[in-house]
Amino acid sequence: MALIIDGKKISAEIKDELKEKVAQLKTSGVEITLAVIQVGNDPASSVYVGNKKKACEYIGIKSLAYELPESTTQEDLLSLIIKLNQDVSVNGILVQLPLPKHIDEDLVIKTIDPSKDVDGFHPQSVGALSIGQKGFLSCTPAGIIQLLKRSNISIEGKECVIIGRSNIVGKPMALLMLRENATVTICHSRTKNLAEVCKRADILIVAIGKPRFVTKEYVKDGAVVIDVGIHRNENNKLCGDVDYDDVVDKVSAITPVPGGVGPMTIAMLMNNCVESVL
Ligand code: GUN
Fold this sequence. Notes:
Number of domains: 2
Structural class: alpha/beta
Radius of gyration: 19 Å
Bound molecules: guanine
CATH architecture of the largest domain: 3-Layer(aba) Sandwich
Number of helices: 10
CATH topology of the largest domain: Rossmann fold
Distance between the termini: 41 Å
Keywords: Amino-acid biosynthesis, Histidine biosynthesis, Hydrolase, Methionine biosynthesis, Multifunctional enzyme, NADP, One-carbon metabolism, Oxidoreductase, Purine biosynthesis
CATH superfamily of the largest domain: NAD(P)-binding Rossmann-like Domain
CATH class of the largest domain: Alpha Beta
Protein name: Bifunctional protein FolD
Strand order of the largest sheet: 1-11-8-7-5-6
Order of helices and strands: EHEHEHEHHHEHEHEEEEHEH
Strand content: 15-25%
Largest sheet: 6 strands, parallel
Pfam family, one: THF_DHG_CYH_C
GO molecular function, one term: methenyltetrahydrofolate cyclohydrolase activity
Number of strands: 11
C-alpha cells in the first residue's frame, strides 16, 4: 500500500510551529509584516492571495494588502516596491505572479530588496541557493523537501528525476535535491525517451503543467512520486500532472492533488516570513 503524503496535515504542523515562534518573537517585541501585492484580478491569483492573507492571520503575521488595478503602470508598481523596500516596518514583499503583459516580471522581481524576497525569486536568492549560501528558498521546492523529510523518506544517494525546468519550481528543486545529496536529472520538453528516464527515478517530481501526463509507464516500482501540477479535469474536478489512479498501486509514496504539494507552498512562505526577522 502506498503512503499517501498528507500535505494538508504536514503544512498544518509547520504553521502551528511557526505560530508558536511568532508568539515568542512578539514577547520580545518583534512583529512580522508581509506586504502582498496583486495587480489585476485574475481569479486564481485572488484565491492564492486570499489564502496567503489567511495564513498570515492564523500565524500572527501582519499582512498589508495592495490590490492594484490591471491598468497599473510598471513605473507605479516599481515605486511601490521601492517604498516598501525602504519601509523598515515591512519584513517581506510578495508580488503575486503572473503580472499583466505590459509589466516586466523580471524587472519587478529584481527590484525587491533580496532581504525581503520571501518568495525566493530574486536572482540573488536563486544564486545563493546555487552556490550553497544562505538566502530565501523558493517556497514550492522547499515545501517538497519538507514533505519528504517529515514523511521519513530519505533523499541522500537517491536517483531524483524532475520533469520541468521553470525558475520557480524545476530549477530550484534540482538545486535543493542536490543539496540533500540526491543524484539529480532535470527533464524537459526536448528530453528524449522521457518515460525511460523517469523510470530510473527513486523520487520522481513532476512539474510539467499537463493534466495526468505521468502514467505507470513513467514510474519505477516502489518510486516516490511528487505531483506539483494542479488542473481542473473535464468533470471540473481537481487533478495533477500525474495520473494518480494509474500509478498509485505501483508507488511507495505519492502526493495527492489537492492536499499534497499545494498547501506546502504557503506554509513555506510563512516560514520565509519568520526567517526574515531572524
Ligand atoms: N504565482 C504562482 N505561484 C506563485 C508563488 O509562489 N508566488 C508568487 N508571488 N506568485 C505565484
